[in-house]
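Before the break, one more example. Copy the sequence into your notebook; we will annotate it together after we see the structure.
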Amino acid sequence: MISPVKEKIILGIDPGTNIMGYGVLKVTGVKPEVLTLGVIDLRKCKDSYLKLRHIYERVQGVISAYLPDELAIEAPFFGKNVQSMLKLGRAQGVAIVAALCRDIPVTEYAPLKIKMAITGNGQASKEQVADMLRRMLHLQAKDLGGFLDATDALGAAYCHYLQMGRPELPDAYRGWKDYIAKHPDKVRL
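Here is what the structure looks like once it is written out:
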């Protein structure tokens, strides 16, 4: 029998070159709980290389504050603008390096997979993802902040939580046959 996870902290990141979202999910046993979510606002920084340094420093700050066990990051979607893709890939790479420098394992998820895991629809809007997360994690609308990038990051963390598989609780049953095998005295045929 697999023992339940005592505690795991997952950092989710939605990479961006203007706004980068982050969300931190704590999983105790099989119960996920939001520790924080927010954004790294890069719009005032005009130098693209200084933006990368700022991303690194801020992601390191979130890591120091919450000590995540794993990083779930959204993969850049393929767009038509090559320059935008290159900039986005750099931002994602810097966030990944910030985690790897602290020996945090990284898992990358396609936006379609995250949306599918959260809403059941790979074409869901950012608003639909945010609303489903609000419902599933019992959050108030005010807790979600003003940027959907933060809820996208939280979506990456929650998708990772779902991909971990639900650990079995002690004395859990795999079905009726398992229950009967463990409790033959309670079954009347």
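The mean pLDDT is 88. Residues 79 and 85 are 7 Å apart (CA to CA). Try to locate both features in your own notes.
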